[in-house]
Amino acid sequence: MNHQQILSENAPFDWREAGKVLGASTKQILFAMAKARGANNTRAAKASGYGGGDAHLAKVGYRVNRGDKVQALLKWAEEAGGGFGDAPCEGDELKQILARHARSDDAGASIRAVEALHRLKQREDELASAEDDLIDPKAMLDKIAKVNPTYALLLAEHHQVQWDHEGSKALDRCSHCGQLIAPKPNGTGGHQVAATAQR
Question: Is the pTM value of this prediction over 0.90?
Answer without folding.
Answer: no
